[in-house]
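Hi everyone, sorry if this is the wrong subforum. Our group has a chain we'd like a structural model of before ordering constructs, and none of us has done structure prediction before. Sequence below.
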Amino acid sequence: MRVAEREGGAPPHVHSAGARSGHHRAVGRSRLLRQLADVCGRRHQRRLLMGESRMQRIAFIIRLLPGADPVEYKRRHDEIWPEMLAALRSAGMHNYSIFRDGLTLFAYLEVDDLERMRASLADDPVNARWQAYMRDMIVHDTDPDTGLMRLLPEMFHMD
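Answer:
Right subforum, don't worry. Here is the predicted structure as tokens:
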């Protein structure tokens, strides 16, 4: 049974665009946003219903230290601790990938709020343990103005 039928309305494709009143379009949009929010998770529901979207795409460079084994780097990430994944998700991070070209690693992720993510991870003991665990293998480019990881400027985006 379709959601619209369950809620007592006709499926959206039954109505022609011209026949729908402004109220019906608004109700249909609201219903669609609620369904989308269920799929995306409760954390995003309020933003979707309010028409807000603050997702930020960020990228940065990590360098493997001379002598660091890329196979070992990958193994550590293949076996990432569940509590580290939970810390990243709790900080609002998602769609996180790291790619390698020689000793250069390119990281891309999406985050709900960059400043909240930074604050959350700065105070997280699991993240501190992970950074210590990885310290013998990597170095991050640092922004001299902030002392934080240098983010790459986005030059192009296509949905």
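For your construct planning: The first helix runs from residue 3 to 6. The chain has two domains: 3-49, 56-140.
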